[in-house]
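Help wanted!
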Amino acid sequence: MKAPRFAYARPASLAEALALLAEYKDDARVLAGGQSLVPMMNFRVAAPKVLVDINRIAGLSGIKVAKNHLRIGALTRHVEIERSAEIAHHLPLIAAAMPHIAHPAIRNRGTFGGSCALGDPAAELPACALALGATFIAAGKKGERRIAARDFFTGLYATALKAGELLVAAEFPLKKPGYASAFGELARRHGDYAMVGVAAHGSTQGGKLSDMRVVFFGVEDRPERTARLERALDGQPATQKTVESAIAGLDADLSPRADLHGSAATKLHLAKVLAARVLKTMEGVAA
Amino acid sequence: MNAPMETIEISLDVNGERVKRSVPARLNLADFLRNELELTGTHVGCEHGVCGACTGRVDGEIVRSCLMFAAQADGCKVDTIEGLSDSREIEELQSAFVLTNALQCGFCTPGVLMAAQSLLRDEPNPSRERIREYLSGNYCRCTGYQAIVDAIEAVARARAGRSK
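Answered by r_m:
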């Protein structure tokens, strides 16, 4: 179908955008890449009265490396992240995730901030943000607010962003020596939303696993860390055997939602298969 | 532009020609190209970004024209399949598609050609696997893709042979 009627505004500055969001409150939606919002409008699942197009606001886009963190502007397109040498070097987990996000024509438009602010439970970048301990930065009329990734994703398509706030960037801690990442997902067609996906990050220094963060997406209503699996890995030798015996923890960690792709039992099974496959091939994990 | 409006004045470059129109905010770029400019080579399939039939180029990069509003293309340079065909940019691909019988009904073909040209511009000599992966966002319900991949591969190999 076609999108329902709406009024379109294209602010030239962050201040203008925030003023519009404050004025129209719940009637307004932010239009970034539009690769999820526009389909939702075409399906008539979303029918905002006002669209605030942030695509022409200077300064919302770009990747910057500082001493201890890497900052990704909310309007940075997926394609820019995919091709970034800084991302490949400092955040290899995100570099590994990018080719899984939809298709080239969609990655040319879709944005980092849009993906995170939408909070789709099957999306790749929210899971990476959680695994890497990112901090989101939201701007509102009263100034900026910092929100840890673990507090940011609050439910199905729900985030900690308040009405009138705009996600402007996220900061990621730079990868430390001895740390490794692994990413994988199962999808019927390359680029489709994941039936089950996993993003893992942690230290394999000295042949031991530590500080492991294993995040599943497409399984529950938001990306979720896996406390029991992570505990079973921590302090253990970085071997495939450790991975195999730790996977059982997922029975208690995950409560999959049945969806179009399969029953809860099927999804739990797929999560275990995928976790084993991905963690065993993580750099630093021995045969 | 500040106050939200339901009708937007836009000025953009389409296939090298300056176009000025007044458009409803809800009009997507694909419908603008087809209905307003009568450039009907851009096809509308699923209208939610899955099928790839509406693939066009905005400022040099391929996009889903059903997932962009015409208002957003204001000031942009838009290329459609008609432009790429007239400029002979995709001449070799078109010939290869004919030779390998890489289309049957032709509905997906403009979008596939757009995507293929974008791939070969960025990666002149892709593997068959890479071609398949790149085209994963373009549905073809006739050919089974084999001949499409053959055609794109043939163009890539021919170009690689010439540049040696």
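OP: Thanks! One thing I noticed: Chain A touches chain B at residues 1-12, 16, 20, 24, 31, 34-35, 38-39, 42-43, 50-53, 55, 79, 99, 102-106, 108-109, 189-191 (CB under 8 Å).
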